[in-house]
Amino acid sequence: MSQESPFGLNVIGFASANVGLGNTLRQFVTCFIERSINICILDIDAGLGRSKFDNRFQHLTVEHAEELPYTVNLYIIGASDLSKFSINPPKGMQIEGRLNVAFPWWELTDIPQYWSDAGRVFEVLLSGSDFVRSTFATHVPGVPILIAPHPVHIPATVLPNRARFQLPEDIFLVYTGFEPSSDPARKNPFSTVEAFKLAFPNKPDCHLVIKVNNANHVNGKRLELLEYMYASVSSDPRIHLIEESLPYEELLSLYASCDVFMSLHRSEGLGLVPLEAMRLGKPVIATAWSGNMSYMNYLNSCPVSFEFTDTGDSYSYSKKYLGINGFWAEPDINQAAAWLRKLAEDSEFRLQLGLRAAADAKQYHEHASKLQFVDELKAIWESRKFLPQQNREAYINKARESKMRFDLSKISQIQRFFYNIKKVFERHILWRFRKVVA
Fold first, then answer.
1. How much is the pTM?
2. What is the mean pLDDT of the chain?
């Protein structure tokens, strides 16, 4: 029955959530609509009260996976959820004959083995940047990996409005932002604060805005990092913290109200906020490594030099958490401060750089909006009629075993002992009772 369904995209992800992946999904859905592609949406709860924030596509959303009608299941997810959606997808997703496509986002050059095995469950992977594509091409053999450049739609009604955000007029305003429920160590706002203070130790007409998204939904180490940052900026009246959750158009209005954007990240899958800033004609200072170099260069932005360092004890990227020896960039604070001083002192340079940024980001958006990957997905779908297909169930079983091994590697010897006892009990005792019940 599913093979007779019309070609189209069942888009699965955080469709209404106030998170970056939600914004990404909505940007792509806007393009799908512009190109009259058949789409239907399954909105996954992002947790922590972050969903039901942007409901513009509610009319395209179904309540249950069984209601999704089209040939392609497109999962827009973080790479850490590959295992979840390959082994235990939403009920009703495992329909025979569907083309299962994962669009995972990730920020390192390596992935755990169980993610690699989970990736092979999908017939196609999409990558939003050359950086992400390189990682998955190295670690997920045999699966087509298509590039899907990220579109950025900017409403024509977006205008600067400093009064709305209680920001002073007639000053040089630098912007940075992050989501603490992600990993603040990766977004690295601490280095931005340091670079700002280094560039302008005593300049009252230079200010910094720090936008903190979903600040009320963090705990543990993330909360410690957030509190550390608050402490580092509390004594400087030139630094403005904005924690209000803003609708997308108002968030872009905040961006438009600032003069320069700074992202001294340690790694990005893409770096959506700098790309949005460039679309608005803002000069961007950013670490010259990872996904943002898909659209940034030395003509349209201010790339910052870096050294490589290991991910240390970061919450989401450490060896303890992932079981891999990850590394990322440590940006040069002195160079970032020098870029800030140049942009503050040379208004003509700032203007021309912003114009070039806007032109290049617009061209990037126009290329992304063509959605070439959708045409490729259709070609792959049609080739299934005559090409031999993978044994998907075998890949699912392998991914399940791989995840089990990873989980076992994380528990103590005592926990592992009781786990093995439980497995023996289930295998030799409980099966008898199941047979009787049956």
1. 0.91
2. 91
